[in-house]
Every structure is written in C-alpha cells, then in structure tokens.
Amino acid sequence: MSEPICKVADIIYVRFELIEFEAQKKYFNHFGLMLAHEDDNSIFFRGSGMSPYVYVATKGKENKYIGTAYKANEYSDLEALSKEFDVDIVENKDPGGGHKVTITDPDGIEVEICHGMSPAEPMAVVSKVLNTGQSKQRENELQRFGRASAEWEVEGDKWVYKLKSNVKRLGHTAINVRDAKASVDWYSNVLGFLISDDVIGPDGNSIGAFMRCDQGDKAVDHHTINNIQLPGDEYPGPYGHSGYEVTDSVDDLMAGHYHLTTLNEYYHEWGIGRHLLGSQMYDYWRDTHGFTHEHWTDGDLLDASIPENKASFRDVVMAQYGPMTPSTFGVTMPVDQIDKVRAEQPPLSALIKEMEKAAQLSESNND
Ligand SMILES: [Fe+2]
After folding, report:
1. I need a surface site. Which of 98, 203, 349, 356 has the fewest CB within 10 A?
2. What's the CA-to-centroid distance between 363 and ligand 1, angstroms?
3. Domain hosting residue 210, numbered range
4. Residue 44 is inside which H or E element, if any?
5. Which residues have CB less than 5 Å away from ligand 1 (the ion)?
6. 362 belongs to a structural domain
C-alpha cells in the first residue's frame, strides 16, 4: 500500500446542525456531557478530558449530522491535505483555536482535520478501586457512588436515580456507507487509518471495517471509525452513532444507564452489553431527534503492529453478552417511529440467520 496523505492522531468532535438547541442541551446534561460554550448560532459540549469540545451543533433548517473532526499530528499534514484536495487551511474560530482543513468523504460526510487546538483543562476525577474475585485492592474503604442511597429521589410519581455518567471523550463514530471498499480505502489512503477488523458478509465480500489511527508503537482505540454498508437496497443516511468513553469504568456506565432509564424521557436503543469487536462494554441511547449516542468503557487498545483481522457481520451484531441487536440499530430515524419499525422487523440476529442460511444454500448449490 502506498503511503497515506497523513496519519491522524485521534478523533476530536462530531458536528451537527440543529433547528433549536434547548432539547439537545437538556439531553446532554442527562447523558453526561457539559456545555462548554454557546452563542446564538452554536453549542459546544465537552467531556472531562482535554478536548475543548467533543460535540458541536450550529443552527440550521434541519436536524442533521454534518461530519467528524480528527486531530492532525503535524501542521504539514494540513498542508498536504490542502494541496491534494485543493482546499484552504483556515483558522479555527471555534473554542481551542488552531487551524483546520475541511474535506468530504465518499458518502458526503464532512471531515475536518485540525491542528494546534489548545487543550482544555481536564476535570479532576477520582477513580474507584474495584475488588474482584482474583484481585482485592480495596480494604477498610466503603465503595460508595455519588450520594449513595440519597442518589434516589422522588420526582412527581417516579423514583429517579440522579447520578449521571461522566463522559470523558469522544472515541469513535459509526457511519453508514454506500460502498464499503470505497469508504475503507478513502479513510486508509487519506487519513492513514488501519483496519482492525475487516467485516466480511455471508457472501464473502467486505461490508465495512473497524478502523484505528496509525500511531506506530503507541496503542490506540481498536476503532476510531466504523464504516458499515448495511444490508438492504436503501441507503439509510450517513449517521450510525457516536461513541463516548465514560470517565471511570463500568459503574460510570451503569450509573448513566439507571439515570436515563429512571428519567424515562429518552429512547434506549441497545445495551447494556459487551461488544466483540473492540471489547467495549456499551449502552446506546437516542436523543430526542433520533440520533444515537453510546456510552462505552474498557475498550481494546492496539498499536500498529497488530495485523488486520477478518470478522463477520455476526461478530458486529452479536455481542459477547447483551440483548439482541434491534433492527433499528445504526439507522437514524424519528424516535416516534422506532417502535413501529421494530414491531415490523425482527432483530438483526434473525437477519444474520437468514443471511447465513442463504450463503450456505448458495455454497451447496455451487458444489
Ligand atoms: Fe460504538
């Protein structure tokens, strides 16, 4: 493979357009992101980590995903991209500053590559020590989260668990693509992404990949982007989900789950479970516009020496443990339509059974 134009270091933020901001501000407050900055035309949310923001929305005529931003290692990466795509390097006027170029991927998703952003002051976090069957590290110290049983409060006619997740950072986006090979090649050749898992469909063709940043001997998240060509003739739109890493392990994820569950205001998409590809423990929630956001923790870290693995669609859909994947997973749709779609379409696990059966049949026909 020829050298890519650049090798991005990490993901920074996702960009959306929204008609109005109040619903999103309320949702992210419950989801565990903090409002970092707002003005008449934009809202910026951050986590407890060093990125000035991990989500930005500007005001527009519709609610839509615009794209994703990545961090360049060197200013010369912006120069190389500027030359290749004939776009200007511009000053980043948003929080953190620095410079950026904006290009477009094969599915029309805006890709911003940023350099020189000033880091935000990370928030102080006290990590909990967990005792396990194999390892007992905590003695003479009681494990208490938040205000312990006082976290449960009565609001109206329901008990609400008040402790939220604390998002640390954005870890990845999952995008739907029209042509798996075109998308995977583009992210490899332009941004230097490596394939962690090539996802092979039952017919033997790749339907996408889980891709990570190439940072040499520095281990990075198993995937920073997941490009998937979903089965079916109709393109469901580019946005799958954004995956936010919580600050402190499993309890941080579980607290967020019970906070959002007991609030009973948002659509729970999928979870809690443990992915196979990337190994994260996950929990997926929809905002009021139908966009899916994931809380995750305990993901695999791989350096550039780990070779590409061949995985199946079953490996994507069937978690190590967790509920069956709903048929709506990966597709953005208005929240009030989800129950109807789910009632009409069996979970993705049933589809896998059909796809595997069809593949077996065509194999035996070929014998
Ligand atoms: Fe994810």
Report:
1. 203
2. 32
3. 10-119+164-344
4. strand 42-46
5. 243, 294
6. no
In the chain, the number of structural domains is 1
Distance between Cα 26 and ligand 1 center (Å): 22
Ligand 1 midpoint to CA 243 (Å): 5
Determine the distance separating the centroid of ligand 1 and the alpha carbon of 119, expressed in angstroms: 24
Give the chain's mean pLDDT.
95
Q: Report yes or no: 249 and 297 within 8 Å, Cβ to Cβ.
A: yes
- The position carrying tokens 């999952």 is 174
Average pLDDT over residues 155-179: 97
pLDDT tens sequence across 240-277: 999 999 999 999 999 999 999 999 999 999 999 999 99
Task: Let me know if residue 141 belongs to a domain.
Answer: no
* Phi, psi of 251, deg, nearest 5: -65, -30
> Does residue 27 form part of some domain?
yes
Strand-pairing partners, residue 154, are: 159
Name, in order, each residue with C-beta under 8 angstroms of 16's C-beta and a sequence gap of 6 or more: 55, 56, 57, 58, 63, 64, 65, 66, 291
Q: What is the mean pLDDT of residues 89-95?
A: 96
Is 349 part of any domain? Answer: no
Q: How far is ligand 1, taken at its centre, from the CA of residue 117, in Å? A: 25
pLDDT interval class at 231 (50, 70, 90): confident
Who's near 215: CB < 8 A, 6+ residues apart? 7, 9, 303, 304
Length of the chain: 367
Tell me whether the omega of the peptide bond preceding residue 225 falls within 30 degrees of 0, making it cis: no
**Sheet strand arrangement including 206-212:** 267-274, 281-286, 292-297, 239-246, 167-176, 225-228, 206-212, 194-200, 309-312
Name the nearest CA neighbour of 192 among 4, 9, 10: 4
Taking the model in full, what pTM does it have? 0.96
pLDDT at residue 363 tops 90: no
Domain of 111: which CATH number? Answer: 3.10.180.10
- Spatial separation of the C-alpha atoms in residues 245 and 272, rounded to whole Å: 14
Q: What are 241's two structure tokens?
A: 């989900």
Helix intervals (H) in the chain? 22-31, 75-85, 180-191, 249-263, 313-317, 335-344, 348-366
Residue 150's identity, in one-letter code, is: A
In angstroms, what is the span from residue 170 Cα to ligand 1's centroid?
A: 10
